[in-house]
NlpC/P60 domain-containing protein
Amino acid sequence: MSASIQAKPTTPHVTKFAHKYVSVRYVWGGSTPRGFDCSGFTKYCFQRFGIRLPRASWQQGKVGVSVKKEKARPGDLIFFRGKINKGNQIQHVGIVTEVKKGRIRFIHSITHKGVRYDWLSVSYYQKRLLGIRRVIRA
């Protein structure tokens, strides 16, 4: 799997496409609109625009280039450790959809809630943030 930055699509394409799946239920191992897990959702959204991501969130964490939180922009992948995992192993991924006054909003598929938006400013996510990676060239 190539870790290079792709030239297309534009970020509004990916984020608008992802928005269509808000409220789709969470399904472990799911990678279709019938149900998504976190990495199945990101893989599905990017694949629609010709960007091939690996299947697992930890593998997606090796694609593209790392960017600082302060440089995040819509279309970037955002990675988190799990609820139980206190180490630095990626166990969750979402797509940055908005950066407003330093606040980051992202869309992801989460257990028991399905595809939804959250803000990184929520302490649950702040504590678990592992990094942000860019796979779309501006």
Summary: The radius of gyration is 13 Å. The chain has four helices and eight strands. The chain has a mean pLDDT of 91. The longest helix spans residues 38-47.
